[in-house]
Backbone:
């Protein structure tokens, strides 16, 4: 799940940050992660808390060696 997906769903980065109980600054730091992926646990949490409206794709978090 990317930060862009969250911003689209919630409308603003601030609302997305509030959903997770983190500061907007913390949310902006997620943009710097590879692929702008939010942390895996947070993605799973978002899918659960939105009852699947946000989709958790574990394949995005698989690293090939």
Residues:
């Amino acid at each position: 799940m990317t930060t862009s997906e969250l911003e689209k769903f919630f409308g603003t980065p601030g609302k997305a940050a509030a959903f997770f109980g983190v500061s907007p600054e913390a949310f902006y730091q997620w943009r710097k992660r590879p692929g702008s992926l939010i942390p895996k646990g947070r993605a799973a949490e978002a899918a659960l808390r939105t009852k699947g409206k946000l989709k958790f794709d574990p394949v995005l978090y698989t690293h090939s060696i």
User: Anything to note?
Assistant: The first helix runs from residue 3 to 10.
